[in-house]
Amino acid sequence: xxxxxxxxxxxxxxxxxxxxxxxxxxxxxxxxxxxxxxxxxxxxxxxxxxxxxxxxxxxxxxxxxxxxxxxxxxxxxxxxxxxxxxxxxxxxxxxxxxxxxxxxxxxxxxxxxxxxxxxxxxxxxxxxxxxxxxxxxxxxxxxxxxxxxxxxxxxxxxxxxxxxxxxxxxxxxxxxxxxxxxxxxxxxxxxxxxxxxxxxxxxxxxxxxxxxxxxxxxxxxxxxxxxxxxxxxxxxxxxxxxxxxxxxxxxxxxxxxxxxxxxxxxxxxxxxxxxxxxxxxxxxxxxxxxxxxxxxxxxxxxxxxxxxxxxxxxxxxxxxxxxxxxxxxxxxxxxxxxxxxxxxxxxxxxxxxxxxxxxxx
Length: 361
Fold this sequence. Notes:
two-stranded antiparallel sheet; mainly alpha
């Protein structure tokens, strides 16, 4: 199968999302599901409609249906059912959150339920691989189950937290989705390619309405849905998932993952509750440095793309070369984070306390 055939579902998904977005915007305004001043918004704008995730999901599901006409659906029936059921549940959870609001704990529970759905339908990390000998050992079922659960919940929430500036989560989702799509193609996982192309299409159709200055926000409806689908796409890209080969999607998703982990560590070291919002995320620091939403978002895109290119190059490495390369990337990443000031806690506690009521989680 030639990869260009996937331009059809890509165009279909983008077209459907683009056509759906104005209608979703009017629906959100009619139902008064709009952005309001709270601790998550960097620059809250009165009556900015939410629910953009509905348009993204519309493009995704139509594009997925178009893509599935190119493969034997009977071979992926169970995993397809799990993807649809889990993503629809996550979409409904996001709609409820945008309308009524959910606590961080409630979101975690709902994400866990969606993760369990995926696991029960066949998405699970099953092996651990020695990085030198490349010999694989089967993980105990409970451990593989737990690692997969943490992966899905973690990635879903990481993308949710990245959604802090106009067009940020949508653009990052496109970059990461493209990378995971290429990885799926390299591994011969055509179903994974269909998932990736469908998500990219939905996000591409929505992004023009969401890029700075935004006319609609994706809301938690979109960020939770996008994060969940990306986590499943990473698992699908590696049907024989191992903890070593999973370094590749881990690198592709490195920016939102690092942002989330550093946020947790920062709050623990500062003595603040883990779920307490602050304005010390990477995109906040880039905004302070760049001075405008557009420049900050473009810089974040560039950073994400850099890690995705590293992930793609890593697919060709094995043994000592892979380990050495990974260590070098880790050291360079630490240096980069230090240059951004992300690892510094000097004055962070006061700045965090002063900023509650602005954006961030």
